[in-house]
Amino acid sequence: MKYLDLQRFKFSSLYKTHNSYSSNSKRARQSCANKTQNVLGTATLTKLLAAIATFFLVVLTHFHNLGNGDVAIAQKPPQLSETALPAAQVHPLPPFLLQWQDKTNSGDYFSGVKQTSVGYLVWSKFPVKVYLERPVELDSASFEGRKFQEWVKGVLQAVQEWKVYLPLEVVEKPEIADIRIGRSRPPLQASFNRETREFQIPRARSAQTRYEFYISQQGILSHRYNIQLSPDQVGNYIAAAARHELGHALGIWGHSPLETDALYFSQVRNPSPISPRDINTLKRVYQQPTRLGWSLSSPNL
Ligand SMILES: [Zn+2]
Is residue 76 part of a domain? Predict the structure, then answer.
């Protein structure tokens, strides 16, 4: 299965907080975004943005099918002019990646990693904070309770595996997390078949990873992720799906063509652990310039 853009559409939305936005109406979103653009088109753009950043987030969205039963949703950065964004620069490599040498010379799949409108999706503030959903009322004896516990265990295993390579911290509050992992079924996205002139509902997805950009209170261009992992996964497939999606969220925004990599584009019977090729790819991503993690008020403006 080849990954490709299933559908690509743009709309603007105005976020008041992380998890609630002003309207579900496309027209209302565009109207809000236009107003915001007009306000921002002044000489005080940068200062104004830093001040309102925690309350407003203007994003453009497109959906991108990443294969593997997962779908990634990319959201474009706040609508700043090119000159208002920080210049793309390379961050220092995190310690493990700095000393990482692949003695097997197994190569990488960096060419399959996509750049975004702000460059590569590199984390520069560590540890990266990860929140995962927990059962509210845990009845560990019930079938659902045991399934939920198994899900939590699988996700935590994947976090531990990636923690070897990049500093990660599991946090208890979703509002302070950089990566939030929820236990829910990703929504189905219908596509239109031009030949049959019918809408097609795809098979259930195992996961959905979505990122968005925002400006922090310190005026730093930042990003964060929401991962939805299906409760329908069982056994080793929970950790495998979490490992794969965390790979995306840690910067590998693409897929490997080899089944022996965790970021292989399709689900397989025996999912691969994190491979040297995964880490070689991750290291190359972290050696790339990005606008993320840099201040809007830096001298590079
Ligand atoms: Zn994927």
Answer: no
Q: Which domain holds residue 222?
A: 86-286
Give distance in angstroms: CA of 83 to centre of ligand 1: 33
| pLDDT confidence tier of residue 80, bands split at 50, 70 and 90 | low
- Tell me, in angstroms, the distance from the centre of ligand 1 to residue 46's CA: 35
d(CA 82, CA 87): 9
Counting residues of the chain whose pLDDT is more than 90, the rounded percentage is 52
pTM for this model (two decimals):
0.74
In a domain, 123, yes or no: yes
Instruction: List pLDDT tens digits, range 165-174.
Output: 999 999 999 9
**Cα-to-centroid distance, 146 and ligand 1 (Å):** 27
Q: Is position 231 within any domain?
A: yes
Instruction: Report the chain's mean pLDDT, rounded to a whole number.
Output: 76
Q: Which of 14-23, 69-78, 180-189, 251-260 has the lowest mean pLDDT?
A: 14-23
82: Cβ contacts below 8 Å, ≥ 6 apart: none
Domain total in the chain = 1
Task: Give the distance (Å) from ligand 1 centre to CA of residue 203.
Answer: 16
> Which CATH number covers residue 270?
3.40.390.10
Give the Å distances, CA to CA, from 250 to 127, 225, 295: 12, 9, 21
CA angle 258, 263, 267 (to 5 degrees): 80
Whether residue 101 is contained in a domain is answered as yes
Helix (H, G, I), strand (E, B) or coil at 39: helix
Task: Give the Å distance between the CA of 257 and the centre of ligand 1.
Answer: 11
Q: Across residues 10-30, what is the average pLDDT?
A: 27
User: How far, in Å, is the centroid of ligand 1 from the Cα of 267?
Assistant: 9
The answer to whether 114 and 288 have CB atoms below 8 angstroms apart is no
Name the most confidently modeled range: 73-87, 98-112, 201-215.
98-112
Query: How close is the Cα of 40 to the center of ligand 1, in Å?
Result: 35
Q: What is the CA(39)–ligand 1 centre distance, in A?
A: 38
Q: What is the Cα gyration radius of the chain?
A: 20
Q: Is the pLDDT of residue 235 over 80?
A: yes
